Amino acid sequence: MPVSDDILPRYQRLPGGNGGRPFRCRETHLFFAIGATILIICFGTIFFMPDLSESLRRMESLSRVQKQVRDTAEGFLLPPPPHAEPDAVGAAPPRHAGQIEDPHLAQDRQKLYEKVRSAGGLPPPPLAKPRQGAAAADAPADAGDADNVDVDEPLPAAAAAAVPGAGTNKRALPEGEDSDPVMRQRRDTIKQMMQHAWKGYATYAWGSNELRPVSKRGHSAGIFGNRPMGATIVDAMDTLYIMGMDAEFEEGRRWIADHLDVSKMDSEVSIFEMNIRYVGGLLSCYALTGDTMFRDKALAIAHAMLPGFNTPTGIPYSLVVPTTGRAKNYGWASGASSILSEFGTLHMEFSYLSDVTGEPEYRKKVERIRQVLNGLEKPNGLYPNYLNPKTGKWGQRHVSTGALGDSFYEYLLKEWLRSGRRDTEALTMFRHAIGNITERMLKKSKLSGLTYLAEVQYERPNHKMDHLACFIGGLYALAGVTDKNKDSARYMEIGAEITNTCHESYDRTATKLGPENFRFSDAIEAKAMKLQEKYYILRPEVIESYFVLWRLTGDPKYREWGWEAAQAIERYCRAEAGYSGIQNVDSTSPRQDDVQQSYFLAETLKYLYLLFSDNSLLPLDQWVLNTEAHPLPIRGVNPYYRPHVGD
Ligand code: DMJ
After folding, report:
1. How far is the CA of 349 from the centre of ligand 1 (A)?
2. If you write DSSP's letter for every residue of 615-638 in order, what string do you get?
């Protein structure tokens, strides 16, 4: 029986079932409608084609802008294009492909970068991977570029929140492993040394300021007051972070959050030491992690130092009791004077603190110190170590790049760098100071022509250098590379020569560790004369200069010298529960002094670790290390800067 076509679903109906016509009228309309739609779409596409191509053009130009921005960031992060003159260590530093760059282009790039970044359009640039060796610290602009820039100009804040690892305390730095297996092994050894130093402290002296690693108990130097204030914890934190010792870092963080309490500091503390170790250390941790607890603790401590600045001149006293605000100077300091290396080593931390808190008061305090110094006559262009904070007059005419003077000079150059080369006043002061030091204090030893810096006592040279003064080899080199002028090559040379002399002071002892002071005469050079000059208290300055010179020149001898020192520390300073100073560097069985200085963890081990790391770890065109080796980010180029965002 034929099946009526009509009971079948439409799609199964046979053609011709409708009077022989292949489709019904409704179907014909449907097909027509579909065809028309397809035609409209095709025409539409052709019609809109110009706009699509416009979009393509836009995408192209967007990717051009992105490339431009990337190039800009790269220019910021990588060492700058070459200067014409060769550097002092011999060869001209290798250059970027672009060769010498038009300074206007550099300025335009800066403006473009700032614009895009402050509009929130640019993710924070990756941390730099500067080339090995030469001129890594050479930053983008010439000194002259900074002349029109105001130190107090508002800070672009957009990058702050987007910094890698923000608020997590998770290490967001590059690993910095060197490609050379020998260096990797050395670096591991340094990390093990840090583990040993930390473990001893955590086991036997937790919360105290320092550790006695032989007698295994806590210790405190007078500079920290009478209370256990965890100086070693605060000083060591960024080293733990940099070395990736996460569990220890967390342990330290907890102690700081729960126990570091300035309102309990009821005895005299040193404003300088509180600044370089605590404020500097905490600000470094804030920069590295974005954890505001660190910033707030730094602020509380700096705040408690402020009564120390209440003097007729604004030059602060050395000591303050945080709970009462009572302040004074050391009785031994030339008629109760303030000390150049102390009041002159506050600028970087106070300035940065103002930037991250939005509280201008701290910067104002250190600007005032500058003002006073600039208004004073300097005998022979040199800065005496003592200044009376009441009268504003110099005390004893003792000039030194070691104890009592040292880091004042360091902070002039470094504050210029830290401020992104905005603080040109600091640079001008540095140029004058170092120029006069070079002219009046730089000497050559008679026996083999070693370069050294003598001290000056009422115009007469004293041919002695402190271990402390050995940081200046690195400082001269840093000036030679970053402040390009007619003296650059010479400063680079002096930096390398002084560092060589400091190495000699190590090499000429029985332990291969350097003495606290060494002298030069017709008969000796780079040797300690008296027993009380022969101690080594785990100081970092010589290794610090090896590190800086290694980064700036790429000369492998600095790594070898650093390794010699590390091995000697291991051999003579290692104790059962940590590391100790020794009393006589000229004895092969020296007595240990039973003190593990907090700066051993902050500085000595950090510099050694960095010396055996790849240059991508804390590149010197992004970070400036304070005088306690706490890294502070460079303004305007380092996304870790984290400036205060308005209320
Ligand atoms: C550290 O506290 C600092 O480096 C300071 O500037 C000088 N002395 C010690 C280390 O020797």
Report:
1. 15
2. TTSS-TTTEEE-TTS-EEEPTTT-
Taking the C-alpha atoms of residue 46 and residue 252, their distance in angstroms, rounded to an integer, is 67
Q: Which atom of ligand 1 is nearest to the CA of 341?
A: 6
Alpha carbon 344 to chain centroid distance?
18
pLDDT given at position 542: 99
Q: Please give the Cα distance from 334 to 536 (Å, whole number).
A: 27
3-state secondary structure of 73: helix
Q: Is residue 627 lining ligand 1, measured as CB closer than 6 Å?
A: yes
pLDDT band at 92 (very low <50, low <70, confident <90, very high): very low
- What's the CA-to-centroid distance between 626 and ligand 1, angstroms? 10
112-119: long-range pairs with CB below 8 Å, 24+: 112/68, 112/69, 112/72, 113/69, 113/72, 113/73, 113/76, 114/156, 114/636, 116/69, 117/156, 117/158, 117/159, 118/156, 118/157, 118/158, 119/158
Pocket residue to mutate for ligand 1, from 547, 625, 628, 630, most atoms within 8 A of Cβ: 628
Amino acid at 618: L
pTM (2 d.p.): 0.78
The span from the CA of 154 to the CA of 135, in Å, is: 30
Would the pLDDT of 10 be above 90? no
Atom of ligand 1 minimally distant from the CA of 603: 4
Q: Atom of ligand 1 at shortest distance to CA of 539?
A: 11
- For 120, the 3-state DSSP assignment is coil
Res. 83: pLDDT tops 50 = no
Compute the distance from residue 589 Cα to the ligand 1 centre, in Å: 26
Phi-psi region of 511 (alpha: psi -120 to 50; beta: other; left: phi over 0): alpha
Q: Whose CA is nearest to atom 11 of ligand 1?
A: 539
Nearest CA to ligand 1 atom 1: 628
Atom of ligand 1 nearest to the CA of 345: 6
Ligand 1 neighbour 539 (Cβ under 6 A): yes
The answer on pLDDT for 65 being more than 60 is no
Give me Rg for the CA atoms of the chain: 32
| CA neighbor of 428 nearest in space, from 477, 389, 373, 468 | 373
If phi > 0 it is left, if psi is from -120 to 50 it is alpha, else beta; for residue 453 that is beta
Check residue 402 and give its pLDDT.
Answer: 98
Question: Cα(70)–Cα(618) distance, rounded to whole angstroms?
Answer: 20
pLDDT value at 367 more than 70: yes
Q: Give the model confidence (pLDDT) of 465-519 as tens digits.
A: 999 999 999 999 999 999 999 999 999 999 999 999 999 999 999 999 999 999 9
Residues present in the chain in total: 647
Q: How confident is the model at residue 136 (pLDDT cuts 50, 70, 90)?
A: very low
Task: Decide whether any atom of ligand 1 lies within 6 Å of the 628 Cβ.
Answer: yes
Whether residue 637 is predicted with pLDDT greater than 90 in this model: the reply is yes
Tokens in use for 326? 């009572």
Which pLDDT score, from 0 to 100, does residue 9 have? 36
Check if 599 has its Cβ closer than 6 Å to any atom of ligand 1: yes
Residue that wins the pLDDT comparison between 61 and 534? 534
